[in-house]
Amino acid sequence: MAKLIDGKAVSAKVKAQVRDEVSALKEKGVHVGLAVVIVGNNQASRVYVNNKKKACAEVGIESFEYALPEETTQAELLELVAKLNGDDNVNGILVQLPLPKQIDENAVINEILPEKDVDAFHPANVGHIMIGDYSFLPCTPAGIMELIADTGIDVCGKKCVVVGRSNIVGKPMAMLLLHSNGTVTICHSRTENLKEICAEADILVAAVGRRDFITGDMVKEGAVVIDVGMNRNDEGKLCGDCKFDECAEKAGFITPVPGGVGPMTIAMLMKNTVTAARIKAGIA
Ligand code: GUN
Fold first, then answer.
1. What separation in Å is there between the alpha carbon of 140 and the centre of ligand 1?
2. What's the confidence (pLDDT) of residue 26?
3. 74: annotated active-site residue
4. Which of 27, 67, 254, 280 is deepest in the core (most CB within 10 A)?
5. From ligand 1's centre to the CA of 13, what distance in Å?
6. Tell me: the pLDDT tens digits for 247-276?
7. pTM, to two decimals
8. Has 96 been annotated as catalytic?
9. Contact 269, 118 (CB under 8 A)
10. Among residues 228, 226, 219, which one has the least CA distance to residue 247?
């Protein structure tokens, strides 16, 4: 039976470090602020944004919320981002995705100054991550690396399988595992023999967005299983991409949903916001 990886506990440790850093910066007269932009009425986005604001309050970062209506135009959103780019009280800008269909997400991401891009979604920051020389961590993958470290298992030389190839999770996840000398396979909806490939993984990261996608027969005995999924079951309860009971039977370590990866994403966002403030103030 797998041990649970406690994302709440690991994220609390990261946030405690961030809180100390924020107060040390305040003593030096350096302000730390994060602008959080939400467009429209997506219920899940509303919950994530509230959690991000709550985390800011916990660690002493000032948050500025901009809630725009569903019918906001791309030009209006770009105008807001340009204003935030020029605002000295704002070190980090986070535009919650997804955006309403009339807005091109890439156009918005491209508009955010790379030095304020605390999601690390801007192509300049993605490029830095690709070459392994970066200040901003891709939040969810970096949080997952912390969770893997918490198990005491060294990624070096391990077979790592990432299921999902999104720009937010799958692709940067593969890069971070590679930087830690893992042997990495990325799988997706067109992958043949998915079950066999997953069943060879020492570290299996499920970032598919479909509940019950990873079943017990896809998990190697003793593997580390990281479930990035945030799905709802028929009763509206939050659940991951893994059939939890079956996977936990085989795995050595597994993340729960909720209480696994989710809290880590937010903790790493706090860390990136402090990094942005530090870089702006010229404090390494
Ligand atoms: N939507 C889902 N995850 C994220 C994230 O990490 N950042 C932003 N901006 N939007 C998201």
1. 9
2. 97
3. no
4. 254
5. 22
6. 999 999 999 999 999 999 999 999 999 999
7. 0.97
8. yes
9. yes
10. 219
Q: Whose CA is nearest to atom 2 of ligand 1?
A: 97
Q: Which H helix or E strand runs over 91?
A: none
Q: Report pLDDT for 150.
A: 98
Query: Tell me, what's the pLDDT at 256?
Result: 98
Nearest CA to 219 out of 240, 196, 185 is that of 196
49-58 own/partner pairs: CB under 8 Å, 24+ apart: 49/96, 51/266, 52/94, 52/266, 52/269, 55/15, 55/266, 55/267, 55/269, 55/270, 56/270, 56/273, 58/15, 58/19
The one catalytic residue among 15, 52, 116, 243: 52
Known catalytic membership, residue 202:
no
Peptide bond into 98 cis (omega under 30): yes
Question: Of all atoms in ligand 1, which is nearest to the CA of residue 94?
Answer: 9
The pLDDT value recorded for residue 284 is: 76
Catalytic residue among 116, 117, 119, 220, which? 119
Ligand 1, atom 11: nearest CA belongs to which residue? 97
Write out the two tokens for 1: 């039976």
Identify which of 55, 139, 48 has the alpha carbon closest to the alpha carbon of residue 98: 48
Distance 96 CA to ligand 1 centre (A): 5
Contact 168, 261 (CB under 8 A): no
> pLDDT under 70 in the chain at which residues?
none
Provide residues with CB under 6 Å of ligand 1.
94-97, 119, 139-140, 168, 265
- Cα distance between residue 36 and residue 20, in whole Å: 22
Q: How far is CA 73 from CA 50, 97, 112, 113, in A?
A: 23, 15, 17, 20
Nearest to 7 by CA among 259, 268, 197, 245: 259
